[in-house]
Amino acid sequence: MARRADVHGVMAEFDDPAGLVVAAKRAYEAGYRCMDAYSPYPIEELHDALGMGHTKLPLIVLIGGLLGCFGGYGMQYWISALSYPINVGGKPFHSWPAFIPVTFECTILAASLAAVFGMLALNGLPMPYHPVFNVARFALASRNRFFLCIEAKDPRFDLEETRRFLETLNPREVSTVAD
Amino acid sequence: MEPYPGGGTPPIMEPYSPGTATQAVIAPGHTFGTVTDKISSIVLTRKTSVGWWLGFLVSFLLFNVLMVSITYLVVKGVGIWGVDIPVGWGFAIVNFVWWIGIGHAGTLISAILLLLKQPWRTSINRFAEAMTLFAVSCAAIFPLIHTGRPWLAAYWLFPYPNTMNIWPQFRSPLIWDVFAVSTYATVSLLFWFVGLIPDLATLRDRSQSRVGRMIYGMLAMGWRGSAYHWHRYETAYLLLAGLATPLVVSVHTVVSFDFAIAILPGWHTTIFPPYFVAGAIYSGFAMVLTLAIPIRAIYGLEDFITLRHLQNMAKVMLVTGLIVGYGYLTEAFIAWYGADKFEMFVPYNRMTGPYAPFYWALITCNIIIPQALWFRRVRSNVPLLFVISLIVNTGMWLERFVIVITSLHRDFMPSAWGNYNPTIWDWGTFIGTIGLFLTLLFLFVRFLPMISIAEMRAMLPEARIDDEDLRVI
Q1: pTM for this prediction
Q2: Which of B92, B84, B267, B280 is nearest to B173 (CA)?
Q3: Which helix (H) or strand (E) holds A148?
């Protein structure tokens, strides 16, 4: 079980998306769980290949939307009926039909903010440094190459064995990722 | 954003020849690398072209006209404009509605076409969304400066605890407008920026200059294309699209409420919300065409913004133009059918009164000329599409002008009738906002990728993973 403290993992580079998906599936079947795949655009098939679960983001967006809805309506109610009531043409202070447009907008605003900042938070972004950037060719991950990285913290990880395993998956190149 | 949404053969597999029913969404022969290089090289070039400098100079000059106009307005007051009794709302509201309307196409292309799984949205959605942001920036200027004392506008418009203990009036469409436009600006910005993150990472990785790498690197926030990140990213993107869709409908509805909630004849009609939204999409697509046609020619992007995109946009313009035409008919019909003499006077005044030339110019620009789009030969003729898009933009400005001015200048009491005469400062402010819009566009085109690189990659035939490819398991 050779695991060095300064190694983040082992990374294989592929030319095409199918190669990456096949590699990810084989790695999953071989028992590896702590791995990540990098691509210049989203690949649906990787979701099952890597054994990804569901994300909590929709729940976060829902909570944001509900906060916006009740918050917006509550703000208008407090302002128009309690704090600063004005008699406008005999309309009731709690003029709820008039409150609907602003409530709607507040819902959308809060839900959108939750979606964006929730996504960034769940992804751990901004994260200016990550060990995979130490591999020079990784710059192509944002252009036309696909990478699979098996991380050292995986219980089945062994530097030589995992490297050999990745070589069997037809990569373009296999590199060790320094931490 | 699967390789071809909805399954089946992507249109790029079909032979590309003008005149066939479905044409290519991307011209054949492109790879992940060529798509990336083509789009990012426009930004990462070391030499900025002379044409860009010239265009930027002209736009910046017009922007300075805006600065001078606003400064003079703040110093002297709203009297420098042509607003008076009875027309108390002039160019400011006309231009505000025009600019907001233009912005709607960007969100429709980004959000609604995503939900409808239309592949042709991909190469136009980035700069259409940028166009939305810049149009909303131009629009937002007007409500602020037209208040007469804009330095007090903060507590009039926004609900914040202030020293006088007063709050805005939530029963007014003017405050609904504040929330709608603010939400629209914020959500558009978020949607656009989220879409940019992977492309900023591409620019970070390909940039040759240290400054470029640092700035794009900071903006990209360390994006590395991890599959887990992409999964949450796609979820967020889809949810934002789902949220932006009702938003775009609601924003111009609320803008139409500025007029429809008032009891003025010609304004107080229930056709206004759908009519305004259709008009917004109409003028928005016209503006997208006005921008897309020169941009694709100048930057050589015909492989990505193909004839199919232009034809589809022309079709959307035709449909929304017909809805707007239906709106005009409904207004006239209900005025006659409702037998309210004040309401009946409005179409009569529009057609025969002092602003009749504007009304008939409006009908020509918005209804008559765009009927040419029924013919495929017109839809396939790029210069003609450009001219028609300019005409539609003018027509939609005239429509807002006619709606606002003709209802205000002759309402219930003939003794209160008057005329509206725009001054040079009205025109200066309007042209200045066009300068602001163009300046922002030139900056965008120079520093950011105007086509979504990541989404374009997903559309290529290389990106398809068939079951045969996976059968090695």
Answers
A1: 0.92
A2: B267
A3: strand A146-151
From the list A29, A105, A130, the residue facing B224 with the nearest CB is A130
pLDDT tens, N- to C-terminus, chain B (473 residues)? 445 554 444 444 333 344 444 567 888 889 999 999 999 999 998 788 999 999 999 999 999 999 999 999 999 999 999 999 999 999 999 999 999 999 999 999 999 999 999 999 999 999 999 999 999 999 999 999 999 889 888 888 899 999 998 999 999 999 999 999 999 999 999 999 999 999 999 999 999 999 999 999 999 999 999 999 999 999 999 999 999 999 999 999 999 999 999 999 999 999 999 999 999 999 999 999 999 999 999 999 999 999 999 999 999 999 999 999 999 999 999 999 998 999 999 999 999 999 999 999 999 999 999 999 999 999 999 999 999 999 999 999 999 999 999 999 999 999 999 999 999 999 999 999 999 999 999 999 999 999 999 999 999 988 888 877 777 65
Cα distance between residue A55 and residue A112, in whole Å: 17
> Is residue A19 situated within a structural domain?
no
Element (H, E) at B216: helix B210-220
Instruction: Give the residue on B whose Cα is nearest the Cα of A100.
Output: B176
A76: containing domain: 65-82+95-121
Q: Which of A21, A116, A147, A177 to mutate to test the interface with B (most CBs of B within 10 A)?
A: A116
Return the SS3 of A102.
helix
Give the three-state DSSP class for B430.
Answer: helix
Contact residues, B window 104-163, toward A, CB-based 8 Å cutoff: 159
Residue A40 near chain B (CB below 8 Å): yes
For residue A137 the two structure tokens come to 């060719």
Q: Does any domain span residue A134?
A: no
Domain count, chain A: 1
- Domain ranges in chain B? 26-159+167-463
Length of chain A: 179
- Please say whether the dihedral angle defined by the alpha carbons of residues B448, B449, B450 and B452, taken in this order, is positive or negative: negative
